[in-house]
Amino acid sequence: MLRVVSIGVRDQEPAAGTPEDIRFTRSKDNKVLYAIVLGWPGDNEILSITSLSGKNLAVENLTGVSLLGPEEGMYIPLEYHQDDHPLHLTLPEKPADELAYVIKLSFSEKIPY
């Protein structure tokens, strides 16, 4: 019986996420926030991160936003803006077919969250 369950698990495709499925982590020095987006919204689309609204995260110390590229050490700079609404990021064409996409938000000081 264990063998049947094991085969069933291995044969499953990973569940696809959506652009609204976002997870966060930060660097040890608390100056970089990583947003892991579990789905691609579309080429040249605006990704709005509602949990990073002007009420929750002021971007005065935000020095840059970039998408981690498909190759090691590759970063794609992103345009962004924020008001009292979500942080809005302008995405490029889809760089690769991945299960998740990582956006790096760099701050000059500790993350004001």
| Percent of residues in β-strands | 25-35%
Gyration radius (Cα, Å) is 17 Å
Mean pLDDT: 83
Helix content range of the residues, please? under 10%
Instruction: Give the helices and strands as they follow along the chain.
Output: HEEEEEEEE
**Which class do the helix and strand fractions yield?**
mainly beta
Total helix count?
1
Number of E strands: 8
Strand order of the largest sheet: 1-2-8-4-5
Largest sheet features: 5 strands, antiparallel
Question: What does this molecule look like?
Answer:
The protein is globular and about 40 Å long. The protein contains one helix and eight strands, in the order αββββββββ. The protein is mainly beta and 113 residues long. It has a five-stranded antiparallel beta sheet, with no helix packed on it. A three-stranded antiparallel beta sheet has the order 3-7-6, with no helix packed on it. The chain has one helix spanning 2-10, and strands at residues 22-26, 32-37, 46-49, 62-68, 75-77, 79-81, 87-90, 101-107. Strand 1 (22-26) and strand 2 (32-37) form a beta hairpin. 8% of the residues lie in helices and 35% in strands.
Short description:
Helices cover 8% and strands 35% of the residues. The chain has 113 residues and is mainly β.
Q: Helices and strands in order, then pairings?
A:
Elements: H1 2-10, E1 22-26, E2 32-37, E3 46-49, E4 62-68, E5 75-77, E6 79-81, E7 87-90, E8 101-107
Antiparallel strand pairs: 1-2, 2-8, 3-7, 4-5, 4-8, 6-7
